[in-house]
Amino acid sequence: MVNEKIAVDHGLKKTEFKEICKLLKRVPNITELGLFSAMWNEHCSYKSSKIHLKKLPTSGKKVIQGPGENAGVIDIEDDDAIVFKIESHNHPSFIEPYQGAATGVGGIMRDVFTMGARPIANLNSIHFGSTQHKKTKNLLRGVVRGIGGYGNCMGIPTIGGQTCFDESYNGNILVNAMTVGLVKKNKIFYSKASGINKPVIYVGSKTGRDGIHGASMASAVFDDQIEEKKPTVQVGDPFTEKLLLEACLELMADDSIISIQDMGAAGLTSSSVEMASKGKLGIELYLDKVPCRESNMTPYEIMLSESQERMLIILENGKEDKAKKIFDKWHLDFAIIGKTTKSNKIEIFFNKNKVADVPIEFLSDKAPEYDRKWKKTKLPIKNKLNKNIYKNLKIEDVLIKILASPNICSKEWIWQQYDHTVMGDTIQKPGGDAGVVRIHGTNKAIATTVDSSAGYCFAHPLTGGKQVVCESWRNLVSVGAKPIAITNCLNFGNPEKENNMGEFVECLGGISEACKFLDYPIVSGNVSFYNETKDKGIKPTPSIGGVGLLKDYKKMVSISLKKAENIVLLIGKTEGHVDQSVFAKEILNQKKGPPPEINLFNEKNNGETVLKLINEGYVKSAHDVSVGGALIAITKMCITGNMGININKPKSLVNFFEYFFGEDQGRYLIEIEKKDIEKAKSILEKNSVYFSEFGITQEKNIVLKDSLNVTIEKLDKANKLWLTKYMDS
Amino acid sequence: MNSSVVIFPGSNCDRDMAVALKKFGFKNNMVWHDDIDLPKSDLVVLPGGFSYGDHLRSGSIASKSKIIQSVIKFAKSGGLLLGICNGFQILTETELLPGVLLRNKFSEFICKNVFVKINNTENNYFKKIKKNVLELHIAHNEGNYFCSNIQMKEIVDNNQIALSYCDKNGEINEKSNPNGSSKNIAAILNKEKNILGMMPHPERMIDKYLSGDDGVIFFENLLNNLK
Q: What are the backbone dihedrals phi and psi of residue A681, each rounded to the nearest 5 degrees, phi first?
C-alpha cells in the first residue's frame, strides 16, 4: 500500500503527494505512483524553471520549431532544415563516467533523429573539478572515452566542444552533449499523437532494469551514498542505436508514421504521456507485449526503465507489416504495445489486469509549478590593483604559464579521441572557434559551437548570461557564419536555495536580453538543477550551443595565420579589464571583482561588420578574443598557422599586462593582406567600429619590441603538452 | 569501371566511400551483407565502421556474413579487393590477409592526419603513383598491426607491406608510428597483390577543403591503373 513515506522515497514532496491523492480522489497504486514520480520530478516537469523559461525569446524568421519538441528546428534555406539540441547527463556521468557520457551522447542523437533528421555533427561541453582533485583524471578519461565510444561507433563526427576545470565541479561534473542533424523541411516528424485507435509501436532494444529512476536521481542532490546509485545509470549500445537510426530513417521515407518520440528520461512513461498529452488523446498500453531483456519485470519496472535505444511510434493503421519488415531487416525488436484512445487517460494493462488508470493531464499539465524565492547578485566592486604587482612579472613567463594552464591549454588529447572527419564533410575540425560541416552535396555549411563562462556567471549572473550568448555569436562570426539560433543547457545548483535560484533567474535574464538583441533565438534546451553534493553547489553554468549558416563554404575562415607581411587588426575597444580573467586567477591569484561588461550594441555592430569583411573576402584568418585576452588569442593564431607576428606597442594603455591579458568583450583579431587594408578599414570606419593595428605577421617568433621575443615552437609545446602530461602523470 | 561497396550493420564509412568512388568515375553499387551474390565488379570495397558493433573482435562477425563467401571467391579469382579500417580488420579475420589488428598502443581511439610511405608500387593500387609519401587520415581504435615472426618474414620476403607510417619526409621511425604497429605497417597486400588492407581513410581526403586531398591522388591513380 502506497503511503506518504513511499512517495517521499520516490522524490515527491509531502504536499505533492497530497495533491496527487486529491486529483485522483484516492491513493495511487505503486505503478501509478511511479508514473507521478517520473513526470513530476524536476527533470521532466521543469517545475522550478517553467515560469522563467517562458520569458525567453524562442521565435524568429528562421525558427521552424522552438522548445517543446524533441529538438529545435531552423530553416537554412532551400528545402533544408537543421534540427539541434543540447542536453545534460551530469549525474550519471559522475557515478559512472563511461556509460554516463556515452548514453548522454546516445540520448541526444535520438532526440534529433526522432525528428527525421540524420545527425551530421556532435559537440560537447564538459566540466570537471580541480586538476588537483583525486577524481578528476579518471572522470575525464572515462567521459572522453564514453563520448568517443558512442559517437565514433555511430559514425557521426564530433566537431567541437569545450572542457573546463574548476573546483566547484569536484563533486558534480557536467557532461552536456549536443547533436546537429539535417532534414528536408517537408520531412520533419513530431511527437504529437493524432487519431483514435492507432497502433502504438515499440521499437529498438529490449527493456531491462537499468536506469530505473534515472530522471528522479537527476532531480536530487548527491550525498554520501552516491555509489549505491550506480544501478540508476543506463548502459549504452551504440551499435543498436546505429541500426535504430537507419531503420527509423528508412521508415520515415514514406508517411507511415503519425508521430514518434524517443524513450529518454523516464522511458516509456514520459514518451507515452507526452505523445498523448500533445495530441489531447488517451493511450492504452499492454505491458506484457513489451520486449523485455529480463524475466519477471513488473509493470512498475517496465514503465520506469531507462534502457537505451528505444522509440515509441504511433503508426497509421495498416502500415504495421511494412514497418515490421524494416525493423526485422535491421534485427531490431518491433512490438505493437497499445493504441490511442479518446479516454484522455493512460490505461496500463498487465496480464489482463488494469494496473494504472490516470488522466493524462494529471501527469502533464497538472504537474506542480513553483515560483521559487530567489536572491539578486550585486555587481561586485572593481578590484583596485596596486600596479606594483606587475613589476616582477615578465610577459613571456606569464604567456607560457597561461598557455599551459588547464583551461587554456590545447585539448587535442581529448578531440583526437573523437572521430571528427567521418561523413567526409568536416571542413573545420575542433581547435578553432567553431566546427564546420558542409551540407552534403551543396555549397552550404553549418558552423556550430558550444560555450560556457561559469566564472563570469558566478561573479555576476546577469552579465555572465549575456556574455556566454555573445561568445557563442562571436565564435560563429569568426568562421564566417551568420549566427541563426541557439540551444541551451542550464546547469545549476539547488533551486530550493535562494542564491542558486537567483543565479538561474539572472543568468536567464542575461541570456534572454542578449538573444533578443542579437536576434539569436533559443529553439531547444534543458535544465539540470541539483548539481550539488553535500551542500556544495556548482558555479552557475549555462552552456550555449550555437548554430550558424555559411551560404558558401569556400568563404569560411579559420584561426590560422596564413602568410607573412599581412596586417592583423584588433577589432573592438581594449580597456584592460583584468577582474575575473585567466590572468587574474592564474597569475595574480585574484578571484574577486566583476566580469567584463557587455555592450550589446558594439557586440552586434562589431560582429556584423567582421562578417561583412569576411564575405567581401578581405579576411585571411580570424579569431575572437575571449578567455586569456588578446595575446593568448594571437598566440593560438600563430601556433595553428605556424607563423609569427611583430606586435605593435599599444598606444592607449600604459600597462602591457592589462592590455594583453584583459578580457574586454566584443573583440576580434583579423588578418588582412596589405592590398585590402584600406578597403577593409573604410568598411570598419563606415560602420563606426573601433579598431587598431595590432601587428604584422612574419615567418617566425612572436615579437613585442623590448618585451617579448619567443619562438612559436616553444609556445606550441607549452600549450600542447600540458594535458597529455597531466593525463600520463 | 564498376565498384561495389559492402554494407554491414554498423558500417559507417560506406557512404563516404561511395561518394569518393563516384567522384572519380566508378559506377558504384551498394551491396547488403545478407545478399549472396556480388554484382559484376572491377573493385570490391569493405568500408570502415563498426560492423556488427565490433562484437567479439573487430571484423570477426563480418568475416562470417553471407556475402563474404562471394567476396572471398571474387578475390581468389584475382579481383581487386580493398578493405579500409574495419574493412582491413575483416580481411585479417577472413585470413585473406595475414596478421591481426590489435588495440592501439596507448589504448585510445586516434583520429588525425598521418604520413604514409608507399613501399610497393608493383600492384594495381599504387602503380605509377605520383608521390611516394601521402598524407592520409586515420580514425581507429584497433590499428596496431601484429603478426608472428614467420608471417612477418613472409610478408617482407614477398614485398607485401604496402604503406608504412612515416614523417613528412618519408622517414619511417618510432615517433611517426601512431598506434604501435609492427614495422610501422599501415597497409599490407596479399602475396598476389590484388587484396589491399589499409588503416588510413583515403575517402576522407578527396578535396582541398577537407583535412587534405591526397586521397585524390590515390583514387585517380587506382582508376587509371584499372582502365
A: -60, -40
Q: What percent of chain A has pLDDT over 70?
A: 97
- Asked if A585 and A627 touch (Cβ cutoff 8 Å), the reply is no
- What is chain A's alpha carbon radius of gyration, rounded to the nearest angstrom? 26
Q: How confident is the model at residue A219 (pLDDT cuts 50, 70, 90)?
A: low
The B2-7 sheet, strands edge to edge: B27-32, B2-7, B43-46, B80-84, B195-198, B185-189, B161-166, B110-118, B133-140
B113 touching A (Cβ < 8 Å)? no
CA distance A488 to A468: 10
Query: At residue A231, does pLDDT exceed 80?
Result: no
- Please report residues of B whose CB lies closer than 8 A to that of A331: 9
B12 contact A CB<8A: yes
Domains and their CATH numbers in chain B = 2-226 (3.40.50.880)
Q: What angle do CA A170, A176, A177 make, to 5 degrees?
A: 145
Mean pLDDT value of segment A134-158: 97
The SS3 of residue A605 is helix
Nearest to residue A143, comparing CAs of A402, A486, A408, A413? A413
Q: Could A417 and B111 be called an inter-chain contact, meaning their C-beta atoms sit closer than 8 Å?
A: yes
Rounded CA gap, B67 and B60, in Å?
14
Q: How confident is the model at residue B214 (pLDDT cuts 50, 70, 90)?
A: very high
DSSP 8-class letter at A452: -
At A202, is the secondary structure helix, strand, or coil? Answer: strand
Integer Cα distance of A245 and A326 in angstroms: 12
Predicted-assembly ipTM surpassing the 0.90 threshold: yes
CA dist., res. B40 & res. B17, Å (int): 18
The lowest-confidence range among A211-220, A508-517, A563-572 is: A211-220
Q: To 10 degrees, what angle do helices A238-251 and A97-113 make?
A: 0
Interface residue B78 vs chain A (CB under 8 A):
no
User: Angle at Cα A131 formed by Cα A126 and Cα A132, nearest 5°?
Assistant: 150
B210–A427: do the CB atoms touch at under 8 Å? yes
Mean pLDDT of chain A: 95
pTM, two decimal places: 0.96
Cβ contact B2:B39 at 8 Å = yes
DSSP alpha helix (H) spans, A222-354: 238-251, 267-279, 299-304, 320-329
- Grid coordinates representing B76? 581468389
According to the 3-state scheme, what is the secondary structure of A171-183?
Answer: CCCEEEEEEEEEE
Contact B13, B201 (CB under 8 A): yes
* A242–chain B nearest CA distance, Å: 6
pLDDT bracket for residue A276 (50, 70, 90): very high
Nearest CB to B53; choose among A239, A420, A554: A239
**A544 and A468 in contact (C-beta within 8 Å)?**
yes
Q: Which among A662, A634, A663, A628 has a CA at the least distance from the CA of A648?
A: A634
- Any residues with CB less than 8 A from the CB of A162 and at least 6 apart, and which? A125, A126, A411, A450, A451, A452
